[in-house]
Amino acid sequence: MQQRYLRPLLFVVMLAGLGSCKKDPIKSIDYNALTEERILGISELNAISNEDITALENLVNERITDNSVKARLTEMLNSVKLLQAILPKMELLRTDPDINFPEKYEEIHGLVTEMSDEIPRKKVLLDELEANREGYDNSEVRFTGDFEYYLREYFKIEPIPGKNYVAYLRSDIDRVDSLIVNAVAYADLMKFNALKIIRLQSPNGSGISGENFNLNKFSQLEVLNIILNDGVKLTIDSCHNLQELDVTGKDALQRLDLAGVSESLKILKLNDVLNLKTLISPERTSLEEVWLTSGGYTPKPDSIILGGNGSTVFIGAIASKEMKALKLSGMENIQISGGAVVDETADPLVQQTIRINEFDISNNPGLKGLIISQLNLPGGLDLAPFPELKGLFFSQLAINAQDPLHMEYPASELSGFTGLEKLESITFSGIVWPENTTLDLRKARNLLWVELTSEGPELKKIILHKDVQQNQSEYGDPFYLYPEDVEVEYVD
Q1: CB atoms within 10 A of CB 480
Q2: pLDDT tens, 190-230?
């Protein structure tokens, strides 16, 4: 690289020195040969600068006196100027997967053919172009679905002209790295090779039919958003680069172990995955959100074991009657909504709590929000390990209850929450207080909402910090307390 930039300077120094030796009787420098040599030397460089061109122009214009020689060298110089434009285009042709190959090939080929045959690099370039063309796959790809608008709008890909049917060049289809369409037949999807994003936005909730939706060929897949019809199973064992996985389908997944899917997964959304039995993930520094939701089929997993990065959000709807394990760590927000149907043939439907044999959320030191409803926990819950907790909501909770319809819990099984200084909202629905209980929440000076719906004896008294009376939500709502008739003592 240094030689290339020094070369024009050397020309100038050499010529300036020669110009000062007018009285030297020795006429040994052949400028015709020197200039041709310099032109050919510059033509072999990997990149040609404007300084290179200027130095050659100076030689041709100032040192060549024979008109016929000047004409020939000027033609060679013009070829070097063409070459300056050709070289970066050749690099794009070799390295840019999104380039319109036929169009760029024709452009470069036209420029190369304009070059003088006296530049040996011309033949080398023509050979390179031919090799690139032979490596270019011009076989046809035909789809059963209509992708004409999408391919033209987003990838500037046109059908092969002159056909009485719609077909595309294989090389064009191989530069399509995203497919965002309403629906696609599995056979059509498999005709793409380089997809990193697949979003099938099925209209009216209609999904993909078939038996097995195997996407393992897309090893570079980063985003998958798909709706699968009943009976369709999803296979993504080799998709190790997934960052977003959003799947809807009753039979889509039975077991999902994120350790075998992707270490870079950020967002996991599973909707209506009724037959999902196991959801497991080791601690994931990339994991931001996990959603287990229902649009008609509520999942019935046996085990959920997830590790987040300390700021991960878990939102889960569960309808199993019993679970082996529910263990969450590294979470910032946890929302678990249970509720299994006792008898699906009954009218009206009656729901029961979900028995959890192993329940562990203790390793969430940064937990800010905890919502639990319709779960039957194996034992009491200590909230002291969550000093950052701001929102606490328990509803229709049971603790080691034998009757699945039992949805109340003794206050003695909840500990540690009275020491939470950052608490802003607390809701206990179905809690059972001992007789003559005084609840002391004076440490929670930021409280905005306290709702305590008791089964059995009511609270005798609640102690609050005096500052809560002036607290307002971001929407201007004043401090709320229920029951309204409970005795309140405000303290410093």
Answers
A1: 14
A2: 999 999 999 987 655 556 776 688 999 999 999 999 998 88
